Amino acid sequence: MINIINPTIDLFLYDLRNSLNDDKTDIDQRRQYFYQKLHKNVQEQLKQDGEDNHQKHNLEAEYIHLLKEDIASLDPNTPQENGYYYPVRLGDSYGLLLEVAASEEKTPEYFSELKQKIEQKLGENTATLGKTWMLSTYLPNFSETTPEEIDKIAKECYKAIFPNRKKMDFQSQGKFIGATIFEYYDNNLKQEIVKLGDKETVNCIQTQHIIIAIYPDKETFDTLGQLYRDWMRLLYYHHKIIWAYGQSRILTNQIKEKFREIQTITESIEENITQGNIKANKLQKISKVLSKIQVIINKYASELNILKLQKGTITINLSNYDKKLSTFAEKARNKVVNHETNISFLEKFSKLVKEKYFLQIEKDLELFELGLRLSEDNVNAIRSQTEIEKTQSDRNFQEFIAVVGTGVVVAGLTGDNATAECKSILGNEFFLCQNTLVYHLMLVFTASVLTWLFRKYILKRS
Prior knowledge:
Layout: E1 4-16, H1 24-35, H2 40-49, H3 51-55, E2 64-65, E3 72-73, E4 84-90, E5 93-101, E6 105-106, H4 111-122, E7 130-138, H5 147-161, E8 172-176, E9 179-185, E10 189-196, E11 199-206, E12 209-215, H6 218-223, H7 228-274, H8 283-335, H9 347-413, H10 418-426, H11 436-459
Parallel strand pairs: 7-12
Antiparallel strand pairs: 1-5, 1-6, 1-7, 2-4, 3-4, 4-5, 8-9, 9-12, 10-11
């Protein structure tokens, strides 16, 4: 097996610092979550040198080194050559580069030990936006190594850090300041629950993203250190896009669930109305149900707006990704003029975003806009029908009061002469005339019936 020299692992990690509706407490919790990825000594140093001091001079905070010395050793008692942290602020996010390396000649399997060193430092802390593993090395006799052998070495390096992968093929490869560079990524997204204080957030990030670079010599390999800042920004845009798309998938499922809930409730109400089961005593219950549906519709609309914001996040970061990729390639060519740089394979990601991510979100937005209008129309129709039923019920009740009231007035006109009037009309022996109350009730009933007949058949014809 061909040996490699100076095997180096760089792990690029990204965390969200703040979102649109975060308050100071949320931002502090996210900052603390990011700080946990670093050694305690470095955390204390960050508190002294960190972003709050820098923001006084840079309100936009597009790219800020969080440490005065830029980097800090992985262990306080070891030199930076054995590994270091490089924390930065990237707009509304954090970026962190962890590097470990071996200066001597090794086999590709040694990358496994380097990865373990990084994982021991991180512990259970995960990246909320995404991460990229970058494996770099150079060969003792690059000119005598065939492309097939370089490909084999790259696969051995990959297997060293992901031994359980049975079979894999790199999606793309190119040239970077003389190195043969490979990229492997998994298009699958995974959900991770992160607890920030009392809150739990769900993040959807890329399963794997690995870059492996085999350099021709020490001179070009050492140039890599001057380009980490460019990789940091480019990979940040990459993961911010995937994170935003992942959040859009979570929102899509939530919106679909709310639409189903709205449809189930409205269909139940419509069925009762159609079957004539809606009664006066049910109108109040239906009004409460409609209020509940309106709350769900409001949440639906709110999540729809957030989905639009995620599309905007992808748009901005894709534009930044394309611009950075162009300037990065040009910078690399100017940095090392005697070796080829061709990283156009990274444009495949941009194509994926345009042809899949954008089209999917636009399709979802169009569908959900129709769903929102349909839900609002259905609720408004039910509300109108309910108002009609309520008006009819109120009218019937008012008419009942008017009819009975007329009967009571007529009965009241008899006054204290009710018994005498009854005997004069029905005779002295008629049983009703013996009870004044019963006679009054009979008058109320008779007058009410006559009034109802008059209002129903005579007034409506005139």
